[in-house]
Amino acid sequence: MIRNYFKIAWRNLIRNKAFSVINISGLTLGMASSLLIFLWIQDELSIGTQYENSADLYRIMENEIADGRIVTDEDTPGILADELKKQFPEVVYAAGFSSPEQHVLTVGEKATRQTGHFVGSDWLTMYSIPLVAGTYANALNSPNSLAISRKIAEIYFGNPQAALGKSIRFDSWNDYQVTAVFDNLPASSPDKYDFLLNWQKYLKREPWLDQWENAGPGTRLQLRPDANPAVVDAKLKTFLKGRNKDIGPNFNIQLFLQPESEAYLYSNFKNGHRDGGRIEYVRLFVIVAVFLLFIACINFMNLATARSVKRAREVGVRKVVGAKRASLMGQFMGEAMLLTTLALGLAIGLVALVLPVFNQLTDKHLILPFNQPLLWIGLPVLLVVTGALAGSYPALFLSSLKPVLVLKGTLRLGAGAQLFRRGLVVFQFVLSMLLIIGTVVIYRQLHYIQTKNLGYDRENLIRIQGEGEIAQKFQLFKQELLQKPGIQSVSHIQTSPLQNGNTTDGVNWVGKDPTSAIQFNNTWVGYDFAKTMKVNIIRGRDFSPSFGTDSSNYLINQAAAKRIGYKDPIGQPLSFGQKPGTIVGLIEDFHFNSLHNPIRPLIIRLAETWNHDNILIRTKPGQTEQALASVEKLCHRLNPKFPFAYSFVDSDFATLYKSETVVGTLATVFAFLAIFIACLGLFGLAAFTTEQRTKEIGVRKVLGASVYSIATLLSKDFLKLVLVAIVTASPIAWYVMNQWLQNFAYKITISWWVFVLAGFLAIGIALLTVSFQSIKAALMNPVKSLRSE
Length: 789
Description:
Blueprint: H1 2-15, H2 17-46, E1 57-66, E2 69-73, H3 80-87, E3 91-97, E4 101-107, E5 110-119, H4 123-126, E6 131-134, E7 145-149, H5 150-157, H6 160-163, E8 167-170, E9 174-182, E10 195-198, H7 199-205, E11 218-223, H8 229-237, E12 251-259, H9 260-263, E13 269-270, E14 273-274, H10 279-306, H11 308-320, H12 325-362, H13 373-399, H14 403-408, H15 415-451, E15 461-465, H16 469-472, H17 474-482, E16 487-493, E17 503-504, E18 507-508, E19 520-525, H18 529-533, E20 537-540, E21 554-557, H19 558-564, E22 573-576, E23 579-587, E24 602-606, E25 614-619, H20 624-638, E26 647-648, H21 649-656, H22 658-692, H23 694-702, H24 707-741, H25 752-778, H26 782-786
Parallel strand pairs: 5-10, 7-9, 19-24, 21-23
Antiparallel strand pairs: 1-2, 1-11, 1-12, 3-11, 4-5, 4-8, 6-9, 7-10, 8-9, 13-14, 15-25, 15-26, 16-25, 17-19, 18-22, 20-23, 21-24, 22-23
Helix pairs in contact: 1-12, 2-10, 2-12, 2-22, 10-13, 10-15, 10-22, 12-13, 15-22, 15-24, 15-25, 22-25, 24-25
Membrane topology: Multi-pass membrane protein
Keywords: Cell membrane, Membrane, Transmembrane, Transmembrane helix
Pfam families: FtsX, MacB_PCD
């Protein structure tokens, strides 16, 4: 019998080619989109969980409570890891780590720029990183030890075994010995590095880290499997009291644990508590995947029902000769499963085809994991769920038809059935409208971010690392560069202009409450900073070589002036740490961190003779290429041991919002797919309606109705459904997108015209879809539709 079901299903599939193609296309697109989203979500959820000891790995986070605010970050004292191992019996391993940075590694004449950082000796063991050469005991066990990835070993030495014991020069100032080679980190690893250096070396290089009052690096640890994280968390809360002398009634630092498995997805904190992160995007795309699958299944229901008149006599004859309702339901469910199986096969092929493009778009390395049981469990589940959703209503509806009415030709569908199908179309367009409005809002927010005035000009601004001999010869570098064509100005800054996380409460001024602990961001810069950044100086001046005392003077931004309380800050005293000075310039607020955060008070110091992290070069408009050639040539001459590398500040800015840009692009693609699939469903309902009203249309034409009036008559019913969807979806979309915008300190307002635009777009697309069937019905010869009368 089952064989007979599929034989009949196949014949119906071939006989009704147009409906079959539309059905299979909708299901294929819905399932392919869901598969892509599933692969993306699986990868997101796996990040941070791939380690052997993932369940016992934690990051130490820090809540700074001061000035009525709670700021959460991963900065901790540099000596915290060793102390935790001594004081906490629950801790198996602990390791401090610096932020990953690019450095130049040199062997002989070969020099390349690689990413790495300093870590504690427990790091490799704690994260169960496979070693392909060397041992965990010897890796990172001495100040000059160096662990490198397989990739670096092959670049410099040909293979991992040959690298052991060899020397690599680090930034041309120190030689390290390769003591271990670890396997290349997987693409899903939240940490990105290719070499690791000894932590004690870092503490000697940065002696300020040896004090509890200073924080900068991070700390991670592994607890015993039987340890209670809540108990450790409670002890960490007061751990720094008595150690950090700055902690007092108005300033406090509380440490707490964050599971490593949650750190990637839950990276945002508000008022000291977890407040989302990338998990919001995961949840969003789970909903999108469900939406697309529902829309595709609704298409099948509508199209199958539209064909019910053609299948009605078949049902009637089968029932007359003794077919039970269960067997008829099995027949129609079998047809649904056959179509769904074909669609699933096409969906897998489509996913394999578009996966390279999808990976490029999302910066992932996704593959179809045919070797994983989860896929072979997931595909049948997807098949059964989709087939059941798509085929359930048509099977119930068609199997319920009464043979007497069918065979007499008096079949009329009840109001309930019509209302249900129209409700499905409304539901489709509600989902589609949500995606359209969401896409418009995301696009407008991204456009706002990309075009917002940051308080400085990021165009024609180049950033290079002040490394090697350039840091020591900066004045010569600057003087020679200013003589080159295309160069407008040159300066330097401690941190990237877009990411300044340096904070201090060691700022004092006349009239300050001595018990308060107010956090200020701070950085050091060189001469011509304001000119190079094109930062607006509201009052006062920039640092200048004409004033020998500027080494102890300060620039402040408007937020700092407001917090300090000086009516006119120029010439007023200010001290940073133990260094008293004078405010010589008030600069307009500019963004030195993500637009997710408000502008905070900023203190700027002069440090022209220090080693610099970032050199800023302003080029003349239209002469950037010429200027870059001059910069590269001069860098090769003054700093020959370092490969030339640069970045544009506007490109760095775009990188900050890459996640939002990817989400915006994906939302656009999936919104288009949702509309396209929904239009297939609308096409199905239009086909069904015209079939039901064939004789009515014939009578109207005989009585003189025009093509336009008939097309309008058929179309207006569908427009009503779309209008209901617009009214239903708009408040839901406003609420959801307004919640998403709360993640930005600087954001757009959702204007009324967004909903109008989305509505007109939905109406226009619906009209185009329906008009095909309406005009086709209006042009039909009434003789054919009325001849049975």
